[in-house]
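Obj.: predict assembly geometry.
Materials: sequence records (below).
Method: joint structure prediction, all chains together.
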Amino acid sequence: MFKQLFPGLLLGLTLAMPAFAGTAADDIQVIDPWAREVPPGLTTSAGFLGMKNTGDKEHKLVAAESANTGMIELHTHINDNGVMRMRPVENIPVAPGSTATLQPGGLHLMLMMIKKPLKAGEKMAITLVFEDGSKKDIEAEVRHFSMENMKH
Amino acid sequence: MLERARAPGTGYTKMKLFFRLFLALLISTSSVYAWSLFSGSEEGRYPGMGGDFTLQSAQGEISLKDFRGKVVLIYFGYTSCPDVCPTSLGALSAALKKLDSKEMQQIQPLFISVDPERDNVNKLQEYSRYFHPKMIGATSNLDYLQALASRYGAYFRKAEVENSSMGYAVDHSSTIFVVGKDGKLADMIQHSDSPKRILEHIRAVLGKNI
Ligand SMILES: [Cu+2]
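Observations (raw structure tokens):
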């Protein structure tokens, strides 16, 4: 009984510890993560979120992964006189105290080779990977396009 | 030696010829422009732009001519575009929802894929209907699409992208082209991510074309 409890206790401790160690994953506060519902027959979509850096040094999002995709890339859009050029970026930096926002028309998580179609209302589990190797699990809410345009 | 001496001479006459051609072009375009200014017709808005075309869709060939009497809303994009296209088409869809059924009867939304390599007509039909039941998805071969896009002032280019499993991206402009009931290009909606803006532009063209 104790033998079974002990590893759990240890795991609990190691999970709690980083809260004081200040890894990127601890410093970054994730705001409103969501992913766009995929039109029928397609396997590409985009994920968005805000990342607030509550720490005192710069952090970088360097990768993202999900069991439901073959690949996630970090992308941005360059608006070149009205021509939108989508390109990969190596990382997404977040200065201390500031917020980096991944949003339509700009930075996004490029969700590629999606295995199970994303349906509005569902959650998609994504793991964010930061420059120090720390990871953060998030749940992105899948939204239909009609849920995006309400703000306009 | 002789050839070398001749070369600059031909170059010079060529330049003169080009200059004359250029002058002729300048005069003819400016007179067309001047004519359009004085004629005061709708033609003046985008002289020499737009025009008829024929594309392939899941329902067979479709031509712009088929929609005379309707206001046609054209968007150039591609289905594996994960962000810009769905944002624009979603905004267009939201704008169309605001129209009453009488207005909607006079509207034909059209999605033109500039990525025929990856988008076949069946995929396009499904994709278009996802955004609006009335939207038609169509495409053609790359040469035809390139010529069509430049006639409308749209831009697209296949761009090889390094360090990405995308293979290639399609750089493209994100504009909704509004063709009036007479088949002429009537308006371009540049910031196509705001349903409110799109609605205003559509209503303005509908109003002019009754
Ligand atoms: Cu992307």
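Conclusions so far: The domain at 54-209 of chain B is CATH 3.40.30.10 (Glutaredoxin).
To do: check interface contacts against the pulldown list.
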